[in-house]
Amino acid sequence: MNIDTPLYLDGEWRPAIAGKRIAVSNPATGEVIGYVAHAGEADLALAVEATRKGFATWRATGAFERAKLMRRAANLLRERAEGIAAIMTAEQGKPLAQARDEVLKSADTIDWFAGEAQRTYGQIIPARSPNVIQQTIKVPVGPVAAFTPWNFPINQIVRKLSAALAAGCSIIIKGPEETPASPAELIRAFHDAGLPAGVLGLVYGVPAEISNYLIPHPDIRKISFTGSTRVGKQLAAMASQHMKKITMELGGHAPVLVFADGDIEAAARQMAYLKFMNAGQICVAPTRFIVQRPVYEAFIEKFVAAAGKIVVDDGSKETTTMGPLVHARAVEHIASLVEDAVAQGARIALGGKRIVRPGNFFEPTVLRDVPVAARAMNDEPFGPLALITPFDTYAEAIAEANRLPYGLAAYAYTGDASTVIALGRDVEAGMLSINHVGISLPEVPFGGTKDSGMGTEGGSEAIESYLETRFVTVAGTL
Ligand code: NAD
């Protein structure tokens, strides 16, 4: 694999004007596998100028045309899924099957938003006079700047890109420098589908330099960011100073409430799969397992058995079910969380160590009886670490589920209808999945509350944050 990812500006692939590049490594081997162009201020100025022109073109393109072009791009992505998956695995580390799945689901996301493009309805509001029509119309908010991370190199971009294009906005994406080449293939699908120049831009570089340039720029009207809560708060503050609309998808620390009347077999199997998917580098990864005491030991046994079957290796091997972490510093982070939890009394039920080989590997790890004071119970691990603690009463479970400032995803297993109703009311999370894993589909909301962010990137509301509502009232004269 040899990566050489340029910038995409004004409909053309080009190197950075100053010729700078950033090295890209394979996290499974530690080897440098190529480079990505590093945008400077001159490139960003070009990107903004192009997006301004692109917006004028795209907003004047009818919704049906926009939708047709988007569907063409989705089909190209499907045709190219195999090749793109191999690139993603080489730069990000996830197993090939998960990379393929990401590409195909991203094509579905484009299709779904293409449909939404055709349904940005306004309203007719009953007027006080029969001679007056009061209407609202939806117009695209304007050029968007989007900042996306490396954990789902394509999926994190496609939600923002598809919503923006469906609404009639142009968009500049600051992609992830760790994993630049697979997102470039997403952009290529839109280029090859015939997207007009300037509607879409792709840049890489120093994240803070790019956000400091784009967010305050008067031509940029909306900011969308996915990443850590710490960075999200900084960018949201900057965007507010310039009165820009924002969507923020930030960190999480998802609780899993396993009640004694739930199907613990299904809970163990489904949650072990989701916990270690993408090596735990998922904002909605289940992390705090809060298990009712009568089934505590049985759940741990089943969960550990399921997690113990995970095959950790280079993601490019078809047999691998968990790859490396993206950074060496992520391995250090998990190791220090485990060390701290054990020092505070947690017991290791599985794993617990880094895997000594080239690349950034850590064992699938399960800690039990973890005290709430342990750092891992409070800081987002963003890695292959499951934390299990017991509870007795419903009130205790809810108190633990809601204890942290995060409120992204939550999961629960129960066979009791009253508990289901109460959970929907009581759990402070943007998404709650009960008795199955059913989140992160294009047609349902995806977003958090509290420190996990604001806005949704899925469902019928997602396009709204790329639109403005204008009110037009008109009086007849006859
Ligand atoms: P980080 O905080 O350094 O970066 C997170 C993301 O924000 C990266 O994509 C980075 O490029 C971007 N970023 C950082 N500073 C920026 C700035 N000033 N302007 C614009 N973008 C900026 O963390 P990391 O080590 O890359 O990832 C680890 C942490 O990030 C995790 O603990 C997790 O909380 C968070 N994260 C969340 C998601 C998610 O899906 N919500 C994805 C990736 C990372």
Listed once per kind, the bound small molecules are: nicotinamide-adenine-dinucleotide
Number of domains: 2
The SS-based structural class is alpha/beta
CATH topology of the largest domain: Aldehyde Dehydrogenase, Chain A, domain 1
Which whole number gives the mean pLDDT? 98
Unreliable runs: none
Number of H- or I-type helical stretches: 13
Structure summary, number of beta strands: 23
Q: What is the highest CATH level, the class of the largest domain?
A: Alpha Beta
Instruction: Note the overall shape.
Output: globular
CATH homologous superfamily identity of the largest domain: Aldehyde Dehydrogenase, Chain A, domain 1
Main beta-sheet strand count, sense and barrel state: 7 strands, mixed
What proportion of the residues is helical, as a percent range?
25-40%
Radius of gyration: 23 Å
- Tell me which CATH architecture of the largest domain applies here: 3-Layer(aba) Sandwich
First and last CA, distance: 72 Å
Strand order of the largest sheet: 15-16-17-14-13-19-20
How much strand content do the residues show? Answer: 15-25%
